[in-house]
């Protein structure tokens, strides 16, 4: 059906192009071109090394050899987007690199603040080990003897990837998923991957993002799965992209091993640290906690097939309840999400493919596939394209019917009155929200001004450290724009800590005004309630075919515009929420300049 309607609109477009250049024809040409707009849903996939992210994605989309998996010591180090190839039958990838300028800054940081600092040279220090791994991956042992940024940035080191030198994306095209996977390893996996012995040079430190395109895949038509590493990145370009992707995800999958689902800290830390980016600062509607390797059962009293299955089901139900109980404890996350958006799945990618102890449905992989299919159907190109085409054809036919004794003028008068009334309703709702936000922000600013000094002291020097330990921390915070990662424990962000009072004051009202849930709408539904009353007017002027047809066009345009307004609100609310943190950071800097030395 879609192809037939597209062919029809292409013929109409060609006729319009060859007609006289009138305002109507120019308008029709713009509307026909606008029909091709595509909307994609992003599903972000988080999880620690060895949790089974790659295997899960492969199983869900039915491509067992697509994303490399295996060695526990290896991990995905870059953002990988997996989407449909709608152009041909090949398996393709597009590799986007950081710039040479970004690499130069990163090398300078590593040599200045980590590798040449005696305080960092510790086997237990993650920053030091990460720096050594990155440089060894790119340069082998050479960097140890020539610790010069100027030398290491030389083009001779990147002859294998000329695209990096000229800041272009590198394309890869293969006949099979397995072939493409093998080619991607050195761009996406850490150099700890013991299964990739043939790889001599690793380029993952230079990669910002990889987009993989899969042919003939119904689940990816309007959905992109994004394999996301950890909690951002030291490289500013990669970190900015990471935050942008997280903010754009409508769904997040947090993947962890079922035997450590409730107790393991990393997946919960990811959820807590990214909740504001996904929630008020993003557009996430669904959080799926996916417990993998659900077929693995230990010490079953009954070794029969039925006994093993029963033990698996019992353990899986226990795991789900434990995870739900843990989620209920996360008060900070509930500021951004309701319990309704949280679901738990117990999945076995291995059993889904081999079916030894469990049937396909019992692995719960089909449930995730069904969810992706629903996302696809919700953003079906067919419905939107056909609806838009119908409106345009109605306008063309109605415009040719001519006017009848000034009827169109009467209709226009009524439409203008309806428009003025409806805009007034929306405006009043927005003004009310503005007044509420203003009060919340004033309260937050007052709390921030009275607490910033104690927050700063407790962050910079909670244990009253002196000497090298304190200066090392201070140096790291300055170099990393307020971010500090201790040898043990989670990453800390000074800017977020300083902004916390302001954000706490506004979070609840912000979520009510700009909800992410599909059943709720911004500004208490004021945009969706907006109506020009075209249905009533169609009934009133049913004797006049031309008027009816043009009103039908207005009806489809009204729905289209409301959809665009909702999209604009969704995008701009992210910017507004992010700007609050930035403004808080600037205000605190200003306040700091006016105060005397804190005496830390």
From TrEMBL:
Q: Mind telling me which Pfam families this protein's record contains?
A: Dynamin_N (PF00350)
The GO terms this record gives for MF are: GTPase activity
Q: Where is the Dynamin N-terminal domain?
A: 43-267
Organism superkingdom: Eukaryota
Which PANTHER family does this chain map to?
A: NUCLEAR GTPASE SLIP-GC
Provide the protein name. Dynamin N-terminal domain-containing protein
